[in-house]
Amino acid sequence: MPSPAPYPFGETVVRLRRGLSPGRDDRGHPIPGPLVETPVAGVVVTPRQETPQVGGQEQQARDTVIVGWTVYDPTGTDWETTDQVLIRGVVCEITGEPGDWGRSPFTGTRGVVQFAADRVTG
Fold it and tell me: What's the start-to-end Cα distance of the chain, in Å?
């Protein structure tokens, strides 16, 4: 029987990672490897918001703007800054270095790997 997902009420996202380059093009640049899709179950995904400056042009009668998601996966999981992640049908870039919280100094339980995921545009 397979083990339960890390967060039983989490959702499944898909890690998109380039495989090894098959070689170089005629200008010597590496050819991107094939895209490898890996489903990751039991992940917590929360909206990430940005609050515009009060009175700024960006505010326009809005309090917050959703700019992407924050993703939480169990500590020790394999996420890299060069990965993309498919969340709810939207391809996102990982922004910054995924942070591994390790173990809680208060409870001894394992923490999470947390990263920001921004929508890919253009």
Answer: 43
pLDDT in tens, 32-56: 889 999 999 989 999 987 655 555 5
| CA gyration radius, the chain | 18
* Region for residue 67 given its phi and psi (left: phi exceeds 0; alpha: psi -120 to 50; beta: otherwise): alpha
CA-based nearest residue to 45, from 95, 86, 17: 86
Q: Buried b vs exposed e over 79-113: b needs ≥16 C-beta within 10 Å?
A: beeebbbbbeeeebbbeeebebeeeeeeeeeebbb
Predicted structure pTM score? 0.74
The CATH classification of domain 11-119, taken from the options 2.40.128, 2.40.10, 1.10.10, 1.10.1740:
2.40.10
List the beta strands (DSSP E) in 1-122: 11-18, 35-50, 65-74, 84-87, 90-100, 112-119
pLDDT bin (cut points 50, 70, 90) of residue 77 is confident
